[in-house]
Design brief:
Protein name: Phosphatidic acid phosphatase type 2/haloperoxidase domain-containing protein
Keywords: Membrane, Transmembrane, Transmembrane helix
Number of helices: 8
Number of domains: 1
Pfam families: PAP2
InterPro entries: PAP2/HPO, PAP2/HPO_sf
CATH topology: Vanadium-containing Chloroperoxidase, domain 1
Shape: globular
Structural class: mainly alpha
CATH class: Mainly Alpha
Number of strands: 0
Organism: Candidatus Berkelbacteria bacterium CG03_land_8_20_14_0_80_40_36
Strand content: under 5%
Helix content: over 70%
Radius of gyration: 18 Å
Length: 197
């Protein structure tokens, strides 16, 4: 068991160094890496808003997808970090890392960005929005890889986040009758009232 853990730790560290070696090649590339790692995630709220007004059927899907993503990001990732805390690479005194963004020194495992994007893309897939799932999944993979490049996460933080986000989204979808009746429909009513005023 120890040899497996040592292998995983070494793999994680070597993969982090490989991705992080992409930094400091040109200032424009570094700027792009920063934007993709930090800024691209903000496309999702716009996606939810546009999707919500796209059709009557898409309202429920957008609310469920957003709820699933926010639940993973704000609840599950924080609960996991209480039981298993792993510092970010920048806080762990790895001497070979190149940093181009500052991130508060909080937990690294699991990646809440990875949980969010996996949860949203999975929910779209489960509701039959396959093309949207592919697009959001592709954007999500780009975001989480860039978060390893800029040394905010280890690769296994990302893998764990993707797996957990997908599983939680699947579990919420399996309970969609309850979710829709007691959470989604009341939220839709609130949104309708806000728009009406």
């Amino acid at each position: 068991m120890n040899s497996l853990l040592n292998f995983l730790a070494n793999f994680d560290y070597q993969a982090l160094l490989f991705f992080n070696s992409w930094i400091d090649r040109t200032p424009s590339l570094d700027f792009l890496f920063k934007f993709l790692a930090v800024g691209l995630i903000y496309i999702f709220p716009f996606l939810f808003i546009i999707g919500y007004f796209w059709s009557q059927e898409s309202k429920k899907v957008m609310v469920m997808s957003a709820l699933s993503g926010v639940f993973c990001w704000q609840v599950v990732s924080k609960l996991v970090s209480i039981f298993y805390f792993r510092a970010r690479p920048s806080a762990s005194e790895l001497i070979d890392l190149k940093e181009i963004i500052f991130h508060r020194p909080d937990y690294s495992f699991p990646s809440d960005h990875a949980m969010f994007v996996a949860s949203v893309a999975t929910m779209f897939w489960l509701y039959g929005y396959k093309k949207l799932s592919y697009w959001t999944g592709g954007i999500g993979i780009l975001i989480v890889i860039m978060r390893v490049v800029v040394a905010v996460h280890y690769p296994l933080d990302i893998v764990a986040g993707l797996i957990l986000g997908s599983l939680i989204s699947w579990a919420l979808f399996k309970n969609r009758c309850f979710m829709e009746k007691y959470i989604v429909i009341p939220i839709e009513k609130i949104i309708f009232r806000l728009i009406k005023h």
